Amino acid sequence: MVQIAHYFYSYFRLCGEVGEVVQLLVPTGAAGNITAGCIAQKMGLPITMVATVNTNDIVARTLSCGDFSVKGEVVKSLAPAMDIQVPYNIERLLYLFTDQDRQRVRCLMEKFERENRVRVPEDVMTSLKQTIVETFVASDDDIKSAMRRVYEENKYVVCPHTAVAAAYHYYQNESVGVPRGVLATAAPDKFPEAVTESEIPVKMDSLQHLETMPTKSMWMRKGEDWYGILRTKIEEITDRRKYKSKEIKKG
Questions:
Q1: What CATH number does the domain located at 2-197 have?
Q2: CA distance 180 to 47
Q3: pLDDT in tens, 72-124
Q4: Where are the domains of the chain?
Q5: For residue 209, is pLDDT > 80?
Q6: Are 29 and 82 in contact (CB under 8 A)?
Q7: How far is CA 97 from CA 36, 159, 234, in A?
Q8: Which of 42, 85, 195, 212 minimizes the number of CB atoms within 10 Å of its CB?
Q9: What is the mean pLDDT of residues 191-209?
Q10: What is the DSSP letter of 131?
């Protein structure tokens, strides 16, 4: 639900005037983010989207030609959140583009669970392609090239998942005649290896101190008020952060 707001924000930052179509390039793994975009579009937001994936291409095959099938093993890539073989939000997309026909979606998903494959019906694909107009598959080399180019041209470091979408933009030389944006999905600090392999001269060491910090946990036992326990803990952490923020400002 929160991601739906990202699409409205992106749209209003990119559109010249309200009502014109904007194209958004979406890094896609389990397809949750792009599902949020489809909901935004059905709410009336005038956008089209391109689903961009890594070499684990089940989402691209599903959204481009209706081939929702598991093939081979998951391939490890520089974009690990996309290293997925069964994108569970496809079920939500089917629900949206079958006009919320629960029984039809159930039949499709049960067939997929039995056989590891199902063909998305043509009428559903026709409806879906009005919103998700294209797909794109990026290799690790594409990811590194896009990360490097974004940095060289903008002095901005993107994460490898964001780079999958940026790679589509660089490959797509022809203008689509509408404003276009890339959704950034994660902080590059979480992927220092990808930054290094892309030959970007920026040290991503802001999270290294976390590796030396103690691991903390809290027991929650059956019968206890888990909601109350979690709420109290969240409030404690929030108060500590507020206190630290005030101390920093005083300093």
A1: 3.40.50.1100
A2: 10
A3: 899 999 999 999 999 999 999 999 999 999 999 999 999 999 999 999 999 99
A4: 2-197, 214-250
A5: no
A6: yes
A7: 13, 30, 38
A8: 212
A9: 88
A10: T
Q: The dihedral of CA 165, 169, 175, 177: what is its sign?
A: positive
In this prediction, what percent of the chain has a pLDDT beyond 90? 85
| Nearest in space to 37 (alpha carbons), one of 63, 74, 57 | 63
pLDDT of residue 72: 87
How long is the chain?
251
- Count the Cβ atoms, other than its own, within 10 Å of residue 130: 10
* Spatial separation of the C-alpha atoms in residues 175 and 11, rounded to whole Å: 18
